[in-house]
């Protein structure tokens, strides 16, 4: 099922402000998700005169995937659960900072899922800075246990 309007992003994430870093969900279906992140001086991690460090892009991708999982759960009457970013390899960007005023389009497409809660997503960040397209591409590995509380307590 593809929706055209979505709940506020904070309603889809197991995060509380100020750690909700993604601004809005713009696309969601059974295997993919797209969000927007607007870089401004009040954004978390913003550095005056520079912007937001590009390494924060990993968290933008992770939160986009978390919003996907949250909306999937809500669509079947489930609850929002925490997940874990297990890692990525070779996160490389042609820039050091996302400058003030740019908007990032963040997309995740699920490539692999195991019943044990492990998933791999093909993720992209796209923006335009000084008329130059910037594209960052990486695979993220994530884990969402069936019972996060038991997992965190070591009772898995």
General form: globular
- Average pLDDT, rounded to a whole number, is 92
The helix/strand order is: EEEHEEEEEH
What is the C-alpha radius of gyration, as a whole number of Å?
16 Å
Number of strands: 8
The percentage helix is 10-25%
Strand order of the largest sheet: 1-2-6-7-8-4
% residues in beta strands: 35-45%
Main sheet makeup? 6 strands, antiparallel
Judged by helices, strands and strand pairing, the structural class is: alpha+beta
Low-pLDDT residue spans: none
Measured distance between first and last alpha carbons: 32 Å
Number of helices: 2
Q: How is this fold's topology laid out?
A:
Blueprint: E1 24-28, E2 32-38, E3 52-53, H1 57-75, E4 84-88, E5 97-98, E6 103-113, E7 118-129, E8 132-143, H2 148-152
Antiparallel strand pairs: 1-2, 2-6, 3-5, 4-8, 6-7, 7-8
Give a short overview.
With 156 residues, the protein is of the alpha+beta class.
Question: Would you write up a description of this structure?
Answer:
The chain has 156 residues and is α+β, with helices and mostly antiparallel strands. The chain has two helices and eight strands; from the N terminus they run βββαβββββα. The chain has helices at 57-75, 148-152; strands at residues 24-28, 32-38, 52-53, 84-88, 97-98, 103-113, 118-129, 132-143. The strands form two sheets. Strands 1-2-6-7-8-4 form a six-stranded antiparallel sheet, with helices on one face. The longest helix has 19 residues, at 57-75. The protein is globular.
